[in-house]
Amino acid sequence: MHKSRAKRMLTMTQGSLIKNIFIFALPLMLSNVLQVLFNMSDVAVVGKFSSDANALGAVGSTSTYVSLFTGLLIGFGTGVNAVIAQRIGAGDEDGTSRASHTAFIISVAFGLIVSVLAMGLARPVLTLMGTKPQFLDGALMYVYIYFTGATGTAIYNYGNGVFSADGDTRKPLIFLTIAGVTNILLNLFFVIVCNMSVDGVALASTISQWLSCALILISLAKTRRSYRLRLSLIKLDKRIAKRILLLGVPAGIQNAIFQIANLFIQAGINSFDSTVVEGNTAAVNADNIVFELMAAFYTACTSFIGQNYGAGKRDRILKSYLTALSYSFVFGLALGLVLYGCAGVFLSIFTDSPAVIEAGRQRLSVMCLSYAISAFMDCTIAAARGLNKTIVPTIMVILGSCVFRIFWVYVIFPIQGTTTFLYLLYPVSWAITAVAEIVYFIFAYRKSMRLLTAERTEEAPAPAN
Question: What does the pLDDT read at residue 242?
Answer without folding.
Answer: 85
